[in-house]
Write a structure and sequence with these properties.
Length: 217
């Protein structure tokens, strides 16, 4: 089956199979949050991005192999409702952006800064700190050596624009980070996995940057 990235709450997961990494996407909870399970194909180690809701659903997706770690992309409550239960069941290490860690009611074992590496088995993800949606939001970039990059953006980038901000300075900060750390350095083929809704690509969104700047959201 071809991966589409289109998932619905209560529906099946969708699996994006890369040469070194398997990415399983599922939608959970009343705010239609996306959670992503990453599995290193060489070692079978697993990492979960955003234990957002429905712990039983997430643990069912994780399966008997468990997870080594769970990354919370930012501190907003809809992205960590199942975190405590998932960590208790799996013993996973917890990662979050340093500036958001205090806003997550589960201890962050590894505070993450811009440029830090987060590993799942032999696969490396690079953290990009994006300020604006929250002070400590992070995106995770997988630069696939066999193809184009893949980026897990949390609520910082969606199809059609950046994540929600409440003040002009927050919007300007988020747009600046998106431009310099993602759009300026990643090719159009880069696949974007957001915190809610459908996936997109850098190339699909790039032509609209000036439009977003002009509208201010």
């Amino acid at each position: 089956m071809t991966y589409s990235g289109e998932v619905t709450v209560g529906g099946p997961a969708d699996v994006h199979e890369l040469k070194d990494l398997m990415i399983t996407k599922i939608a959970v909870g009343p705010m239609n949050n996306n959670a992503y399970l990453l599995r290193c194909r060489a070692t079978d180690e697993q990492l979960l991005i955003d234990a957002a809701n429905e712990a039983d659903t997430l643990l069912g997706m994780i399966g008997g192999d468990g997870i080594a770690s769970v990354v919370t992309t930012h501190r907003h409550g809809d992205h960590w409702q199942a975190l405590a239960e998932v960590v208790a069941a799996t013993g996973a290490r917890t990662y979050a952006g340093r500036e958001d860690a205090d806003g997550i009611p589960v201890r962050t074992d590894v505070p993450v800064d811009d440029g830090d590496t987060v590993r799942v088995g032999r696969v490396e993800l690079t953290a990009r700190h994006l300020v604006g949606h929250t002070p400590g939001s992070i995106a995770l970039v997988y630069d696939d050596p066999h193809g184009h990059p893949h980026v897990f953006t949390g609520d910082c980038l969606f199809p059609g624009g950046p994540g929600r901000t409440t003040r002009p300075e927050e919007f300007n900060s988020l747009m600046g980070g998106l431009e310099t750390k993602l759009f300026d350095v990643l090719p159009d083929e880069t696949w974007i996995y957001p915190g809610h809704g459908n996936d997109t690509t850098i190339g699909t969104e790039r032509p609209h940057l000036a439009e977003w700047r002009a509208r201010g959201w």
